[in-house]
Amino acid sequence: MSPLREGTDFDHPPRSVSQRLGAILWPSFFAAGVATMVCFAFVDPMDLRDLTFPELNISRELGYTLGFFMFWAATCASSLFTWILLRPASRFNRPLPPPK
Questions:
Q1: CB atoms near residue 59 (< 10 Å)
Q2: What is the rounded distance in angstroms from the CA atom of residue 46 to the CA atom of residue 7?
Q3: Which residue among 8, 13, 27, 80 is the one 20 to 30 A from 38 at the CA level?
Q4: How far apart are CA 39 and CA 58, in angstroms?
Q5: If you average pLDDT over every residue of the chain, what do you get?
Q6: How far from the centroid of its chain's Cα atoms is residue 43's Cα?
Q7: Is the model's pTM score more than 0.90?
Q8: Residue-range definition of the domain harbouring residue 32
Q9: Residue 47 is inside which H or E element, if any?
Q10: What is the number of structural domains in the chain?
């Protein structure tokens, strides 16, 4: 007996776009928040500005914001890559023919 359900080509039902986006964005948002707190507990955004772009007038709040979105982009990329790797093969491969 095939592990696929009768009349379907997938081994589980497709997920909605909101579920897929939520599975990628929510964990990455949470991880970015934690990473931001840990990073800026030890590093002042003004010190980072002075080391990297001293000619730009970046406020402390903008530094925190940019740091958060940088961490969110990095953790979102990680979550997206994990989601890509965990997609079931039945979505992309034809089922095997039944044994004879």
A1: 11
A2: 60
A3: 80
A4: 18
A5: 85
A6: 24
A7: no
A8: 20-87
A9: helix 45-52
A10: 1
